[in-house]
């Protein structure tokens, strides 16, 4: 009984340490914990509770094992017998996997062969190895049937051919919806649908820096003939696609599809010469259409 009380006290101390540890950590590392959102905190809390339950269960199991052993010793003494401890569940499970013969029983599996005083034991393969061998045979049969007999699953060569066919189909689809546009084939379009789409993209993403009419704000004026990074359609598209990180313009190629960048490039072209009120002073170098053709 005294031992039992000692174990319970020890369990209480462990629980107290487990509970106060995270609290003291949170107090000393409050700035770090504050960065975690509610979901992350809940996940951490659940994991901590699970760990606590496992530790408590392991501790209680240890206590029960000790109590059972002490009770067995007491009963054996009362009967005047020697106490023989029962093997644990883990020991039984391990023995069932290995099939090892105890050293004290090895004389039962000694073979008649004698090589200069060296004798051989008739040990069989461990059960786990035998089970794995059988599992490999079953897997091989299933694999052979699925891949080589019925053709249910494709072989590596067939997988490659399927992947290439899908890539070609995706490429054709991209070309059909305009996503194959790049600096090498882009052209200004006067199609009202393209201009309307480009205006929508511009109003959603460009107005904050270039203003609604393109007169310029944080970013440069888009309605005059002066350009910081080139005024040809290829250069404008490239600027939109790759951005100007050192001046705060993000690479829109990571956000917009090529077709959308094509549309907004054409829309920006329509802003040229509109001379909106409050337009920003020219910046960059003068660009003319004539200079592009020469």
TrEMBL record:
<feature type="transmembrane region" description="Helical">
    <location>
        <begin position="42"/>
        <end position="68"/>
    </location>
</feature>
<keyword id="KW-0472">Membrane</keyword>
<dbReference type="InterPro" id="IPR050597">
    <property type="entry name" value="Cytochrome_c_Oxidase_Subunit"/>
</dbReference>
<keyword id="KW-0479">Metal-binding</keyword>
<dbReference type="InterPro" id="IPR038414">
    <property type="entry name" value="CcoP_N_sf"/>
</dbReference>
<keyword id="KW-1133">Transmembrane helix</keyword>
<keyword id="KW-0349">Heme</keyword>
<feature type="region of interest" description="Disordered">
    <location>
        <begin position="273"/>
        <end position="294"/>
    </location>
</feature>
<dbReference type="InterPro" id="IPR036909">
    <property type="entry name" value="Cyt_c-like_dom_sf"/>
</dbReference>
<dbReference type="InterPro" id="IPR009056">
    <property type="entry name" value="Cyt_c-like_dom"/>
</dbReference>
<feature type="transmembrane region" description="Helical">
    <location>
        <begin position="128"/>
        <end position="149"/>
    </location>
</feature>
<feature type="domain" description="Cytochrome c">
    <location>
        <begin position="193"/>
        <end position="272"/>
    </location>
</feature>
<dbReference type="InterPro" id="IPR032858">
    <property type="entry name" value="CcoP_N"/>
</dbReference>
<dbReference type="Pfam" id="PF13442">
    <property type="entry name" value="Cytochrome_CBB3"/>
</dbReference>
<dbReference type="Pfam" id="PF14715">
    <property type="entry name" value="FixP_N"/>
</dbReference>
<keyword id="KW-0408">Iron</keyword>
<protein>
    <submittedName>
        <fullName>C-type cytochrome</fullName>
    </submittedName>
</protein>
<keyword id="KW-0812">Transmembrane</keyword>
């Amino acid at each position: 009984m005294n031992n039992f009380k000692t174990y319970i006290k020890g369990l209480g101390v462990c629980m107290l340490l487990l509970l106060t540890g995270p609290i003291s950590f949170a107090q000393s590392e409050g700035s770090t914990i504050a960065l975690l959102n509610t979901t992350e905190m809940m996940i951490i809390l659940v994991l901590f509770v699970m760990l606590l339950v496992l530790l408590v269960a392991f501790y209680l199991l240890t206590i029960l094992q000790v109590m059972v052993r002490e009770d067995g010793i007491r009963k054996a003494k009362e009967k005047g017998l020697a106490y023989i401890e029962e093997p644990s569940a883990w020991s039984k499970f391990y023995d069932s996997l290995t099939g090892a013969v105890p050293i004290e029983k090895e004389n039962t599996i000694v073979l008649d062969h004698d090589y200069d005083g060296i004798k051989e034991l008739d040990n069989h393969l461990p059960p786990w190895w035998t089970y794995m061998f059988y599992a490999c045979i079953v897997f091989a049969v299933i694999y052979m049937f699925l891949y080589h007999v019925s053709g249910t699953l494709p072989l590596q060569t067939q997988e490659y051919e399927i992947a290439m066919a899908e890539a070609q189909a995706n490429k054709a689809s991209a070309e059909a919806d305009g996503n194959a546009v790049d600096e090498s084939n882009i052209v200004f379009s006067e199609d009202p649908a393209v201009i309307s789409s480009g205006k929508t993209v511009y109003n959603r993403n460009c107005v904050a820096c270039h203003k609604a009419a393109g007169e310029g704000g944080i970013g440069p004026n888009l309605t005059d003939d002066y350009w910081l990074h080139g005024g040809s359609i290829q250069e404008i598209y490239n600027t939109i696609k790759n951005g100007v990180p050192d001046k705060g313009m993000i690479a829109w190629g990571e956000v917009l599809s090529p077709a959308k960048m094509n549309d907004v490039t054409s829309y920006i072209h329509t802003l040229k010469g509109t001379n909106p009120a409050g337009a920003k002073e020219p910046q960059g170098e003068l660009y003319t259409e004539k200079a592009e053709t020469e």
